[in-house]
Write the structure tokens for this entry.
Amino acid sequence: SAVDGFNVCIFAYGQTGSGKTYTMSSEDGMIPRALCMIYSTSKELEDRGWTYTMQGSFVEVYNEKVRDLLTDEISDTADHEIHHDMAKLETTVTNTTTLSLDNQAQVESILAKAMSRRSVAATKANEHSSRSHSVFILKLTGHNSITGEKSKGTLNLVDLAGSERIKNAQTSEDRLRETQSINKSLSCLGDVIGALGQAQGSTPSNSDTRSSLTSGRNSSTGGAMAYIPYRNSRLTYLLQFSLGGNSKTLMFVMVAPEKKCLGETLTSLRFAEKVSKTKIGVARKSR
């Protein structure tokens, strides 16, 4: 879909220690598999006149701050702002490292580099708990030399930080602040999905959609306006164009098998049910 010109978002959601990072970033995980498929597909399309350029960046949202995981020095004082182009429905993050990706080996290299820089800490629930949401952003630009057609698509591969009850988290000040920030942003993600579900009957025009995204609102049935709270979290604001009706979104929900995790497992499954029932309309290509 991203090759075809759609904005796409794939999430891994679940409690800490349930296997999200392994699912997304392991040797056979979603990120390398997705990129392998994209390279293969783009190669096959060469016979039809298509050529593609691909650019990748890797960021994390840590305590409501955007960090560049491909820079040599990660700093909370670095100025990374999220900008939305409402006409093109494109998102950019300022002052981040963007690399041209010509082959699979480059993807493996930047994946290893990003993982080594991601915020990880030990908590009572998980010795190697991810304390941030990581987002691998791949932008694909295609041009057909035969028809003159062009396409632009974005693939966001998101490894969410694990949900964790405060009472089960490490009680140090830093871990407590991280847990509160993680739970707040996950709650905001749920709010956005819920709001999108309430607006599922809408059929706005392209101009209405752009206007609605600007104000964080979306049209609903009967002309009423349903508020979509993208701005309540840096994560949902970053992914705004890949969560609404113009996009295609998929979520993997991880659960841990241990009996002690039953409470979090039920919470994750309830969230999964909420997501699966949410309809966000028919996706449109971003050109």
Notes: The helical segments are 20-25, 30-44, 104-117, 173-198, 206-215, 234-238, 262-276. Residues 3 and 153 are 6 Å apart (CA to CA). The longest strand covers residues 50-62. The chain has seven helices and 13 strands.
